[in-house]
Amino acid sequence: MKIFGPLYDVAIRWSRNRRAPALLTGLSFVEGFIFPVPPEV
Q1: What residues contact residue 20 under an 8 Å CB cut-off, 6+ apart?
Q2: Which of 11, 14, 28, 36 can bridge 23 by disulfide, Cβ–Cβ 3.0-4.6 Å?
Q3: What is the C-alpha separation between 3 and 18, in angstroms, rounded?
Q4: Can you give the pLDDT at residue 6?
């Protein structure tokens, strides 16, 4: 999906950073509030 392409690219870039655990934890936390959809859907 075109909407999530930029977010995916940012997450991949952040995963190469030395602070990746903190960055990706923050991203997951924010994503839980923005897209409160259960994983089963």
Answers
A1: 14
A2: 14
A3: 27
A4: 86
Under 8 Å between Cβ of 17 and 23 = yes
User: How many Cα atoms occupy the beta-carbon half-sphere of 7 within 13 Å?
Assistant: 11
Quick one: which of 7, 37, 4 has its CA closest to 24?
7
- Nearest one of 33, 35, 13 to 24, comparing CA atoms: 13
pLDDT of res. 10: 83
pTM for the model: 0.57
pLDDT reading at 26 higher than 80: yes
C-alpha dihedral over 16, 21, 22, 25, to 10 degrees?
A: 110
